[in-house]
Write a structure and sequence with these properties.
By secondary structure, the chain is α/β, with parallel strands linked by helices. The protein has eight helices and seven strands, in the order βαβαβαβαβαβααβα. The protein has helices at residues 16-25, 46-53, 71-81, 100-105, 133-153, 169-172, 184-194, 219-235; strands at 2-9, 32-40, 60-65, 86-89, 114-118, 165-168, 199-203. Helix 1 (16-25) runs parallel beside helix 2.
Length: 237
């Protein structure tokens, strides 16, 4: 099997070199690995650091957007360039642990399996990140959107917004994906479920970064867009 790891990037000069090292080092026994980095119009030193790093990365592709189009647009570019049997999304910060990737792959039983890494099959961490109001709002908003996904599409999902989505390329190759920003998460989830695919979830742990550290998701704005996206794609393509 061949796995395409898509890394959408925008202004991540502080973390991009380290995440590329970690993705390159992760062991996938018996699986060929393809790394696809899509820079979405970064204005800091991200591009120069990517260009320096990929010299040591075998099987890596680097694609650059001339302007900032949004995470969804970057992921779509990566999907179009992917040649693997399976695709997984990897954020360019250090929130997600790349050692969870082999765990997700281990859950594949047939060529149509979809696996999500859930961060939210739990109560809020009141002693950790969710003691802060913005993170608690993010947690509650995500739980609400995941519950709505479950109701609208008839399958229980605890973390629709997770970055770690592992899916067959054959199921998305001809999928009409339109989202440009963070609405990519509800759109692809909606369309995978509408195709009748089952999403298996396994628990993962993350180290959330704060907004002062560069977190880009806006709970109110992006949550409202995600809500509309879930409802819209329940009834249209």
């Amino acid at each position: 099997m061949k796995l395409s790891i898509i890394i959408p990037v925008f202004n991540e000069e502080k973390t991009i070199e380290e995440i590329l090292k970690r993705v390159h080092r992760v062991k996938l026994r018996g699986i060929e690995k393809e790394i696809i980095i899509v820079d979405d119009g970064s204005t800091d030193n991200t591009v120069s650091k990517i260009q320096k790093s990929i010299k040591n990365l075998s099987g890596a592709k680097f694609i650059k957007h001339e302007a900032n189009l949004g995470k969804g647009a970057a992921v779509r570019t990566g999907i179009n360039a992917a040649t693997g049997d399976y695709i997984i999304i990897q954020d360019a910060d250090l929130e997600y642990d790349v050692d969870d990737i082999p765990r997700l792959i281990s859950q594949i039983k047939n060529k149509k399996d979809v696996v999500y890494g859930t961060r939210l099959d739990r109560m809020p961490h009141f002693n950790e990140e969710e003691r802060r109001l913005r993170f608690l709002m993010h947690y509650l908003g995500n739980r609400f959107l995941s519950l709505l996904t479950s109701i609208l599409y008839g399958q229980w999902i605890t973390d629709m917004e997770t970055c770690y989505k592992l899916f067959p390329r054959s199921e998305v190759r001809n999928m009409k994906l339109k989202s440009k920003r963070f609405d990519f998460e509800p759109e692809i989830t909606s369309k995978l479920l509408k195709k009748g695919l089952r999403i298996r979830e396994i628990p993962i742990k993350t180290k959330p970064r704060g907004y002062e550290e560069g977190k880009k998701l806006n709970t109110i704005r992006d949550g409202t867009i995600a809500l509309w996206t879930l409802i819209k794609y329940r009834f249209v393509d």
